[in-house]
Amino acid sequence: METGGTPAIAVKKTSLTPKAIIHQRFGIKACYKVEEVQDSDPIGCPGLAIPQKGPCLYRCSLQLPEISVLSDTFKRKKDAEQSAAEKAIEKVCLVFLHSC
Predict the structure, then answer these.
(1) What are phi and psi of 87, to 5 degrees?
(2) Which structural domains are found in the chain, ordered by start?
(3) What is the pLDDT of residues 16-45, one digit of tens each?
């Protein structure tokens, strides 16, 4: 026995990442620069003659026409870029709200 209704269509609700929002708003005017930052905490034994390098961390600076922001340090480049974009969104919103 068939039901007379139409099949339910699942609607995907996609949320944009901070970097995607920056791209929509600024396009090619947004410039991301990722740099490697060495962890300052020494690893290994204090008496060891050969210094050991810590894990490599990344920091991203994002240049926009109105502002520039610097992310915190992260283990992944992608996370540093997202952090910079998130900070830029917060800063742009504050500037926009403050100018009204």
Answers:
(1) -65, -40
(2) 18-38+55-98 (3.30.160.20)
(3) 899 999 999 999 999 999 999 987 665 666
* Coil/strand/helix, residue 5: coil
50 DSSP 8-state letter: S
Single pTM value for the model? 0.70
* Tokens 């390098």, located at residue: 53
Q: What angle do CA 24, 76, 45 make, to 5 degrees?
A: 160
CA–CA gap between residue 76 and residue 63 (Å, rounded): 20
Partners of 75 in beta bridges: none
Separation CA 83–CA 72 (nearest Å):
7
Distance CA 27, CA 46 (A): 49
Total number of residues shown for the chain: 100
Residues 6+ apart with CB under 8 A from 40: 54
Residue 89's nearest CA partner among 13, 14, 29, 20 is: 20
